[in-house]
């Protein structure tokens, strides 16, 4: 179940770090021994504290220990106990990949179907991104969760089978939902996705990631009805929690992720008319993203939380970005108390150790569960407003 990384164990196929090299900078077929892609010096906390005192700034942490309601929720802000992870690990890390391939662009603009140049961006993820990332994960002996939509399972079954044969978790990637209450179309679409993945891999998926869009009350019940055990679709926490429906928790566990730790906002790009991002003119520097993600991992580890990376082979699978991901994995591997697991393993662990709740009164899932009734009470409110 997952893998607790040890700082003194190099991944299979890698040479040990040469004497005198910086700790955690493992050498391997894709690296120069002892050399890091980016050099980074962390600020001295003592100097930061002196600067704060000199400028009159203070770091107010009172909200972590008092019962002051969180603004807009009426719930308490209390210091929560550190989660318990397997084998005494300090934090959990989940690597996830969404294999949308050409479907990403087909959803973005109706004309993409007649634009093979645009669709080739998604095809690259299948042709080059998937093999490159599978080799990288194999070198580090790390598990990952791959979210696959029906379209990809139908058009690229060999790639999906290759991922499954490598021992990774295959989960469902669901299309955008148009309303807060799931209808027959949503049910049929999700059921078809499950059937297509089971036909290709021989294994029925137990998890789902819904595409960005509306995910309202009732969808958790549908997930439960269709046999899903977990979801990774929302952003309201940094630890797993049960999804709610009808004012109460369901057996379906949620493994939240955040846009800051996804590659699309930084790297995915295409020009008009199928433009992404809509304003164009943005491909982030590897240095900035890498240091941001390394610092974010450090913070999640410090708090003992579950850090989820949301990646796409057509974006992160480019050679330079795969090297950046390897540098990030080197940084994570420098710590011997990290549990690297699939989303399903994290959900199952949380179900066994934390149970179904109840969540605190101000938890985003409980707040979200109360939205439908609040919307109905609001005069002239759109029930499907996001």
Structure description:
Residues 1-85, 351-386 are annotated as: Disordered. Residues 17-31 have a biased composition (Low complexity). Pfam families: Polysacc_deac_1. Residues 130-228 form the NodB homology domain. The protein has 386 residues and is an alpha/beta fold. It has a single domain (90-371), classed as Alpha-Beta Barrel (TIM Barrel). It has 14 helices and ten strands. Strands 1, 2, 3, 4, 5, 6, 7, 8, 9 and 10 form a ten-stranded mixed beta sheet that branches. Helix 3 (116-140) runs parallel beside helix 11 (319-333) and helix 9 (286-303) runs parallel beside helix 11 (319-333). The protein is globular. It starts with a strand and ends in a 9-residue tail after the last helix.
State the fourth-level CATH superfamily: Glycoside hydrolase/deacetylase
Radius of gyration: 22 Å
The number of distinct β-strands equals: 10
- Put simply, the count of helices is 14
Give the overall form: globular
- Name of the CATH class: Alpha Beta
* β-sheet strand percentage: 5-15%
Largest sheet: 10 strands, mixed
Regarding quaternary structure, how should these chains be classified?
single chain
| Average pLDDT rating | 75
Distance linking N and C termini: 37 Å
Structural class: alpha/beta
Biased composition (Basic residues): 32-44
Domain NodB homology: 130-228
Protein name: Putative polysaccharide deacetylase domain protein
Biased composition (Low complexity): 17-31
